[in-house]
Automatic annotation (TrEMBL):
It is an enzyme of class 2 (transferase). Residues 25-329 form the Pyruvate phosphate dikinase AMP/ATP-binding domain. This is Phosphoenolpyruvate synthase. PROSITE patterns: PEP_ENZYMES_2. Keywords: ATP-binding, Kinase, Magnesium, Metal-binding, Nucleotide-binding, Pyruvate, Transferase. Belongs to the PEP-utilizing enzyme family. It comes from Rhodococcus xishaensis.
Amino acid sequence: MAAESAPTGQRWTTSIDHLGPADAPSVGGKAANLGELAGARFPVPPAFAVSERAYLAAMDAAGIRKDLADRGAACRSADDTLLTRESRALQTLVREVTLPDDLRAQICRAYRDLGPDVPVAVRSSAPAEDAADTSFAGIHESYTDVVGEDALIDAVRNCWASLWTPRALTYRILRGYEEEPSIAVVVQRMVRSDCSGVVFTADPRTGARDRIVIEAALGLGEVVVGGQVEPDTYVVSKDDFTLIDKHIGNQSFAIRPGRDGDQRVNLTSAEGTRQVLDTAQVQEIAKLAAAVEEHYGAPQDLEFAIEDRHLWLVQTRPITTLGATDTGAAGDETRDTAEPLVQGLGAGPGTATGTARVLSTLEDSGRLQDGDILVAPMTRPDWLPVLRRAAAIVTDGGGVTCHAAIVGRELGRPVVVGTHDATNVIEDGSRITVDGSSGTVFAGTVTPAAKPSVRQRPAQLQVAAETTATTLYVNLATPDAAESVAATDVDGVGLLRAEFMITGALGGAHPAAMIAAGRRKEYVDDMTAGVEHIAAAFAPRPVVYRAVDLRSNEFAALEGGDVEPDEDNPMIGYRGCFRYVREPELFSLDLDVLHRVRQRLPNVHLMIPFVRTRWELAECLDQLDHHPLGADRGMHRWIMAEVPSVAYWIPAYAQLGIDGVSIGSNDLTQLTLGVDRDSGVCKDLFDTMDPAVLDAIDRIIDRAHDCGLTTSLCGQAVSTDSRLAEHLVRRGITSVSVTADSAARTRRIIAAAERRILLDHARASARTKE
Ligand code: PEP
Ligand code: MG
């Protein structure tokens, strides 16, 4: 494409020393933030920005600016195939642009000013990035270790082209961005971090402003920021910068920058438990952090890197405290005087009054009007549309971990399960009140005793959000509440159950029947849309998608579900990973969906359910490796730890290449104690806090940790029992995943547990010094 010269006298590049917050609209938030730090003489690696006007001018000069804008806008109504094709074509157009001579000369001059052939990182800086709205984080491309002028110009063009990837296009469409997109670029000298980490200029666990807390690890800082390893923690007094406490972490691996991209390097136990920073370095970092806090006039959360003992500041942002969200429903009370009609297990908090609809089969569901109360023997995934319409759910069978309870709770409905005889006792058409907290159903209208919910409390009584080292995820089973849950203080989705999404998206058809009827594409399209909806709401936070855990009893009733075997014990039957070994075509549906979603939203990862032994996981992973998704090394591969055999097999599973385990304590409790989790009759036996279950959990965490795997727990008990959350934090779990209604409370429990651990540690070391 012919180069035309840009209007003369234009400045396309600016050294970050001359940038500040006011420049964010022209150079993006990332460059503007770095500029403010550099301007205040903080040690920021030298860098310059190529403005977003430079991008637009280059597109103008190449004569493609209007074409890009028009075709990009047309993608809003394009189907997936067309969008992918257009995206490819638009990226090629941008990559083939010849830069106007003046622009190219300015970029090369600014590069030479950084030093002769210096390796640089070339990063996209979108207009909203790193500003108050960080929604573009992770959407556009960055390139590291770029050396030489030609390679630099290519990298700049590639950053520009990343405005038009399927991911960026879809992201803008989903977020409703209509303005012409543009992008700035930051070119920064590479820092080869020997070690790095984060600093808080107030103690994030206690809020104490007279403390500075530093977390450090070997190599690049993403392992600290992402909570992938246990870093060293240093607590420093802000008054005189003395070291008050230190806790040496345990780092199983480090990420090191290399010529061929970042490398994961395993560390020996001696390397991983060696102190990362000496006292002089701790104090130097603390002084720098205090100075940055003074500059901004507010507590800061900074990222630093040390290269050849030189300290660099990589990023800073204010520590924000948000009003906590809490449903408050758990504490609702019903009038003491009312006589209960039936009593079961409170499985979804809140109360509702309405007309009872006793449905023995799904075929009757037309009788349930919006706002009626569903009373049924038990529900399955294909009941989702009815659950959505019901004001509350009451079942004869089930325990608190049954899928009816899980989904009812997620939809925000009061749920009572395990009543034995609700379908006999409750009269169809009668007016009833359901108290999902106490598990009681009353005849007539029973008003809760007056007690303000947390939402109604005066704002000043709301508690500030906590920052925790333990990651807090939520469990989701439907896209219904994705946006509202994503707007709360959670770190992502630790378990996306696909079973209910199938029925939600596909109107109750069995996946195998869809394949047999030649409707495979329809299945993949609909599921992709559902998963994308959730992934976009949470991006860039991770969403762990669990491949469908097909259980014969839950899926037999779907349309075409007669393919399911008739099993006496479906909970230990034809399900999970083994099912994928026998029916690879079913697994390929999940793989296709994830492959499609990750093209645009790479925050989605895979989790394999109900893994029982090594060979079946090996075969399942082999299927993954033979699928195009297998080449996608950025995707995490997790397994669920639900069967006690997992504790034994973890080292073998780690060798097969998984990088995380998530403990499914619902199934693990069932299988450790030998108690059917769906049985109302045996409900008193079902106890995740039983020492035998805790021992199984501990062994899984310890062995996974020894093998360098991340650990999580996504079973129901951690949402309801604060003792379990504390136990897990003490055991060093990486994350927990809870129901959305208990996220705020769990965050506080985790924060308090983390503080207690540090306090115990501080007291123990004070005693040894005495
Ligand atoms: C579990 O078993 O704990 C789990 C989270 O999976 P599900 O409840 O869907 O079986
Ligand atoms: Mg399970």
